[in-house]
């Protein structure tokens, strides 16, 4: 009996990271080979339908792939009235004042001199949310609306912390079907009550997620769960009689991420509790080898690297010429990406090449700190924080090289993307990925972790030695055959179909 691939992940989005890209690519490729492919997601998204429709309409998600979201699936199935726009009409007796400082339509409302609510609309003039205030001007709740103008969630706010303490989720007729208590300090979900059908209570949202996942797998013919997020591993391990593939997207090692004996608890629990039908997919041979040094050789361990995604090449301009004095990095602005070290290394580059430019694409919590560091290092004229880009290959095309300075990676998809357009990479020897993808002194350079001098020297060489850069660029394009989509999909098909062979041999 043919298996049904069921990809389990937190969420899908239009602006997405490496894991979401990997899930979409795998689902699209598997849809060519299996009668049905599912993606199951757990995260509440206010504009969920808008996101999924955009992915389908932009051909980023194959229409044969069926997406199920827990919050949407748990809603009672009732017809609803669609609203193209929410009218700006408001209750009589309310004074409305537009906030002219906001780029999107935003209004404050007053009743007899008291501030009672705050409304924000999107660019299409569809209501986004309403904040309700008490007489002391404290926010007491927020009402969130979907792209059809329907109330989907109401967040009741703790007056001391101004953080949510209770979330209520609404069906298409405005009736609450789910309630989740929230710790106002940690923002972690607590007691969860499902009121759709026979009421049921869970200690945490995790219990609801496990219950929903178990229910869905029973409704799908011969499901094979493919789990991409370590947060779901424990839930899946507790579901009986289910075939599972666990994909390791990140380092399984604890800080400092270099000692193979220091394994994160979630991965230790996984590796110690595999049954015969469970399979684990690593993205690199080195990570698989490190795991086997601790847990022994295992026929359940497999390596299927990410491929070069050719659909991303469609928007490239072959006439673009690279800037020989430009370097690029695409990364979350997060401590583990060590962009501070990248900046300190680049200071050394500018000392030798004063007009060198460093373009950093990404968003994150460290944006303010990085701006301060750029100023402190005197790099305001040389470094740009460019925000998020949904066309990374185009940015790699323009640069002499790209760099990666992470403390750890699972694969380093950015390295693959850079090489795919002929842009060499200078990278720390991070576990895992760079030295599996980059061929040192062939299509890039791999330097020791934390060696900012070597990182800077590699950048300088590629900026000043055009012959070396051109040679590396030509060699880099061999990544298309080394990490081909054909090898990738064959690896996945062989693994999924091996479950049938296992059953036949029992």
UniProtKB/TrEMBL annotation:
The keyword Protein biosynthesis does not apply. Its EC number is 2.4.1.52. It comes from the Bacteria. Residues 8-179 form the Glycosyl transferase domain. InterPro entries: Glyco_trans_1, Glyco_trans_A_1. The keyword Lipid metabolism does not apply. Keywords: Glycosyltransferase, Transferase. Residues 324-478 form the Glycosyl transferase family domain. GO terms for molecular function: poly(glycerol-phosphate) alpha-glucosyltransferase activity. It is an enzyme of class 2 (transferase). This is Poly(Glycerol-phosphate) alpha-glucosyltransferase. It comes from Alkalibacillus salilacus.
């Amino acid at each position: 009996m043919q298996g049904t691939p069921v990809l389990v992940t937190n969420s899908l989005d239009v602006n997405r990271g490496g894991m979401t890209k990997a899930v979409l690519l795998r689902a699209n490729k598997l849809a060519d080979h299996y009668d049905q492919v599912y993606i199951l997601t757990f995260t509440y998204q206010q504009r969920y339908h808008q996101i999924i429709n955009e992915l389908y309409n932009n051909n980023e998600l194959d229409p044969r792939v069926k997406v199920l979201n827990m919050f949407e699936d748990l809603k009672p199935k009732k017809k609803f009235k669609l609203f193209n726009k929410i009218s700006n009409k408001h209750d009589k007796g309310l004074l409305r004042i537009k906030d002219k400082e906001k780029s999107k339509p935003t209004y404050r409302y007053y009743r007899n001199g008291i501030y009672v609510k705050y409304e924000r609309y999107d660019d299409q003039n569809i209501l986004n949310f309403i904040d309700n205030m008490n007489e002391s001007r404290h926010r007491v709740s927020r009402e969130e609306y979907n792209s059809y103008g329907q109330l989907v969630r109401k967040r009741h706010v703790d007056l001391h912390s101004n953080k949510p303490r209770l979330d209520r989720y609404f069906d298409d007729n405005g009736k609450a079907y789910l309630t989740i208590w929230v710790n106002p300090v940690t923002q972690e979900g607590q007691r969860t009550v499902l009121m759709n059908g026979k009421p049921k209570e869970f200690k945490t949202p995790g219990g609801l997620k496990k219950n929903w996942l178990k229910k869905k797998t029973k409704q799908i013919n011969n499901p094979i769960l493919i789990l991409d997020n370590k947060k779901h591993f424990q839930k899946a391990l507790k579901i009986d009689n289910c075939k599972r593939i666990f994909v390791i997207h990140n380092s399984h090692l604890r800080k400092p991420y270099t000692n193979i004996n220091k394994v994160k608890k979630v991965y230790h629990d996984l590796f110690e509790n595999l049954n015969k039908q469970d399979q684990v997919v690593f993205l690199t041979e080195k990570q698989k080898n490190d795991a086997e040094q601790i847990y022994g050789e295992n026929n359940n361990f497999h390596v299927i690297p990410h491929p070069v995604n050719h659909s991303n090449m469609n928007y490239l301009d072959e006439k673009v010429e690279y800037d020989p004095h430009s370097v690029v990095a695409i990364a979350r602005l997060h401590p583990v990406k060590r962009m501070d070290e990248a900046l300190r290394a680049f200071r050394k580059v500018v000392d030798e090449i004063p007009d060198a430019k460093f373009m950093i694409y990404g968003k994150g919590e460290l944006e303010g700190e990085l701006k301060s560091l750029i100023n402190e290092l005197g790099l305001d004229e040389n470094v740009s924080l460019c925000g998020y880009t949904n066309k990374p290959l185009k940015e790699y095309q323009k640069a002499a090289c790209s760099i990666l300075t992470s403390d750890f990676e699972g694969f380093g998809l950015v390295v693959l993307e850079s090489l795919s357009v002929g842009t060499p990479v200078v990278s720390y020897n991070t576990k895992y990925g760079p030295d599996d993808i980059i061929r040192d002194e062939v299509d890039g350079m791999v330097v020791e972790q934390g060696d900012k001098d070597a990182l800077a020297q590699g950048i300088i060489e590629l900026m000043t030695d055009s012959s070396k850069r051109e040679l590396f660029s030509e060699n880099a394009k061999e990544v298309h055959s080394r990490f081909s989509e054909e090898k990738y999909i064959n690896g996945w098909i062989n693994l999924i179909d091996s479950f049938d062979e296992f059953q036949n041999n029992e």
